Amino acid sequence: MMLQSSSPGAGGALEEQRLLIRRARKEILQRHRGRLGTGAEPPIRVMARIVQDLERECAERDFTPEAIRLEIVNRTIGDVNLRLVTECEGEEGGPADFRMLGDELGIALPGEDLNGFTASGDGYHWLRARMLDAERELLAAGYDPRIYDIHGVGNPVLRGRLAEEMRQWGLSVSAQHVALGLGATDCIDKVLRGLAHLAGLRSQPPGAVLFAAPGFNMPELQAASYGYRLHSVRTRAEDGFKLTGPLLAQHLEENPDINVVYLTVTNNPTTFAYSPGELAAMQDVLRGCAQRGRRVHVLADLAYVGTGRPEDDRARMRSLTSAEDVAGQMIYVSSLSKTHTLTGERFGWVAFGDTEFARNMGSSWTNSVGSLPGEWQLRFMAYHDLFRENPRLIEKIREFYRLRRSRLRQQLERFDKEHQLFEHIYLDDDATIYNWSRLRAGEDCFSVLEKTGLAGIPGSTFGYSDDYIRFSVGILPVVMD
Fold first, then answer.
1. First to last CA, the chain
2. d(CA 107, CA 337)
3. 208 strand-pairing partners
């Protein structure tokens, strides 16, 4: 439905266009408001559709890109688009010129304009040259990436390198403990599939998976598809929205069918991360279960370990990997998607704490992906070399996230002064690419979008209350107009 007022066209005054876009926001939200909470469509899709409708209507009315950028800001999706980075803190082309990341990471094409910075193409060509070197290395090691891999878990050279990195955290693993996957989501799916298969071989049901809320909900959909019972545990704000040892012990005691705990070590959506002590307390609970003959696996999602302070990540990971007596119950899922801004590349892997268990899980890889793409493995190896040889790039990505998180908090605080939207704007643990905030009574994600132009995701998306909202710093820069 188009607005009835006349369009100012591309030459119209910026403020006039912004006012008309605000009116469009209000009218579209009135049409969509009743759809949230009906269950007919996931909340995240409702919000995404609203943003798409707004952007399409603005394009049809020939509004200027500047007016649209200021009045419609999609903060629903976490992915970082390096082609849209505009931030340059300090000297152009200097170490804090974040526009250069697309060129440095080989994503930008040679000569591509990155918001005023012209990509040299050095990173683009470097990756392709290193892929050639990687293929020669694999052939020399007896692995041909161009033929079918009957094991399906990926080449042993890269798996060995990833295991070596994880040993720096104190995890005793080798290439035999590691399996590659097409991103963390694919890895989690394969693990849940494999555990259900092993249960079936014992003529047992898959059991239940414990999910702490609020939390990333994709694994819930995966678990349900393999016949698991979904067991949600609501966490408390005073606990930092984290699963505590006593809470875990209570739910395991009351629900003997729970055999998997899904744990996001650095949380999406809340941005809070587990401390070494909190992780040790949960391991004590697992230890107690094992002593009573009950095996409970922890599916540790490390997708955001690496977005925060390195010393904090090392401390929490050493705590998580130090208990050798429960190592066989630990499953570690890692990815370069969020930590290295490579969401489209789909580089992920799993490390199992036990060699025999890793071997038993192999059928899940063979029976799903079959054989991992050879070209994908070569690019994965090239990127691994890039970051190993240029550790400064990883720190630059962390600085980039830190800048956007800080600016987003400032923007939310300013909007709160103008519109009294939030009961609490939570500080993060200097990690992830999100903000998690509690809304005032009477506010929801629709009213926030109507008043500010920021499209966030309601808390119900993550198994929590719509009194909360999550914003992402990923796709778009934070513009302080």
1. 29
2. 13
3. 229, 258
Cα 152 to Cα 479: distance, rounded to the nearest angstrom: 45
Instruction: With beta carbons less than 8 A apart as the criterion, state whether 155 and 377 touch.
Output: yes
Partners of 212 in the beta sheet? 233
* Separation between Cα atoms, residue 289 and residue 252, nearest integer Å: 9
Considering only residues 28 and 198, tell me which one the structure prediction assigns the higher pLDDT. Answer: 198
Higher per-residue pLDDT: 406 or 8: 406
Does residue 423 contact residue 439 with C-beta atoms inside 8 Å? Answer: yes
Of 363, 389, 415, the position where a domain reaches its end is 389
Average predicted confidence (pLDDT) for the chain: 91
Question: Is position 136 within any domain?
Answer: yes
Per the CB < 8 A criterion, the answer to whether 203 and 255 are in contact is no
Contacts of residue 6, Cβ cutoff 8 Å, sequence gap at least 6: none
Residue 248 · residue 300 · CB < 8 Å: no
- Check whether the bond before 205 is cis (ω within 30° of 0): no
Domain that holds residue 375: 128-389
Reported as a single tens digit per residue, the pLDDT across 170-197 is: 888 999 999 999 999 999 999 999 999 9
Residues 66 and 167 grouped into a single domain:
no
Same domain assignment for residues 225 and 205? yes
Domain end residue (candidates: 362, 389, 416):
389
Closest CA to 71 of 86, 89, 57, 82: 57
Distance CA 231, CA 212 (A): 9
In-domain check, residue 4: no
The Cα–Cα gap between 39 and 50 comes to 16
DSSP code for 343: T
Q: What are phi and psi of 343, to 5 degrees?
A: -65, -35
**Do 372 and 401 share a domain, yes or no?**
no
Extract the tokens encoding 305.
């370990």
**Residues facing residue 213 across a β-bridge:** 234
CATH number at residue 58: 3.90.1150.10
> Residue 299 and residue 224: Cα distance in Å, rounded?
16
